[in-house]
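note to self — DONT lose this again. spent like an hour looking for the file last time. sequence + predicted structure for the chain T wanted, 328 res
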Amino acid sequence: MIEKLKENWFVVLVAVILIAAVGYYTYDTNKGKLPGKKVDGKDVVASIGDTDFFADDLYLELYGDESSSSSAGTQVLFSYFERAVVDAAVSVDDEMKTNIATAVTSVKQNYEGQESTLLSQLQAAGYSSLDDLELYFTHSFKMQKLIGDAYAKDLDNLFTPIYEEKNSRVVSHILVTISDFNNITEEEQAKMDAIDQALADGEDFAEVAKEYSDDGSASDGGNLGYVDSDSSLVTEFKEAALAAEKGVVTDWVQTEYGYHKILVTETDKEALMENEDIRNDIYAAIEKANPDLNAQIIWETGQELGVEFANENVENAIKSYLGIEDEK
């Protein structure tokens, strides 16, 4: 029932979802004793048009049977709250429609013959059937846009402390894989020599990477994108990349994968923030540095949209789940 209403406007969603949650909190304490309208002896917690929503049905749909825990119920409550806020705040444009369709097609192809595994993962995310895959990606892309727009609006304030503390930069490399460091083959040494000569002759680093690098980044000129002190890279490589000066190719750096030539292509803060190719990496760094930020954005967006809670317990439960503290 509620799943079919998810595609409607925010007001309808909030009316059903949050009042449904009221049904749980009150129902859980006073089973069947909600004041107000009754139909056929059942308590009505919300009415939209000619449709009535009953406490018993909503309680079971949100929380399952009597053995369900309140913490699980709160997670479901927040899931519906988040979806309602995101659905109201973000519209689906043509580009997003294309991205959603592409993602759905890709996942279906990747999970062909493994539908039960896909269903389990969807259910873990709060969806009920494989038919909800499009809804899942719709919500995901909407959420990405909502959070991304909020980050972009305050990007300088959010990124500056990361830039100052974590040595942010864009890094490229050329890799020559080595099978045995104690016995470098003539072929391996010849490739390293050819790379050294090409760079010494002034050839473009990216073109040399495309020609010689054994890494998957070769097709992109060796570009690894955004790197900072929190990046998940082999220690020897990361230390060399963070110590390198912009525009200066390092000596050969040994890691478990082989020998690397490393080039830092950008360190300027403004240039990093304007670089669309690393924007998602910067956003990931912001999220990692501010683990409560996304929750705050969801909450504040809900407030801007005028969410009203019919029951203080519902509001407090969502605040607690989000880690939102009341203003003193």
